[in-house]
Write a structure and sequence with these properties.
Length: 98
């Protein structure tokens, strides 16, 4: 997702929305698996949570770059982006508490 952004290329909003929806479903699956898994060591939990927050930041920058600039992106992606961002926040919190 980042390569087209770095090159300033246009993207297909519908495809990006589908990718984000697939990611959201994957994160939900990870949250469910996390509930039944053994506890993480504190440093492992911090690294995992930090990585998830870094992904949130990357996606936020990506979203902000195209939203409002590309009309098809602005039509297809916002709802899916906010849902993914929310689930990533839940996952980061769950990891930090594990």
């Amino acid at each position: 997702m980042q390569t087209p952004r770095r090159r300033g290329l246009s993207v297909k909003g519908e495809e990006i929305a589908k990718e984000m929806e697939d990611m959201r479903k994957g994160v939900i699956t990870l949250i469910k698996k996390l509930d039944g898994s053994p506890a993480l060591e504190k440093d492992q939990a911090q690294v995992a949570s930090g990585s998830t927050k870094a992904l949130q930041t990357l996606l936020k920058n990506y979203f902000n770059f195209y939203n409002g600039y590309d009309p098809m992106f602005s039509w297809w992606v916002p709802k899916t982006y906010y849902a993914l961002d929310s689930v990533l926040g839940v996952y980061a919190t769950a990891l930090s508490k594990k």
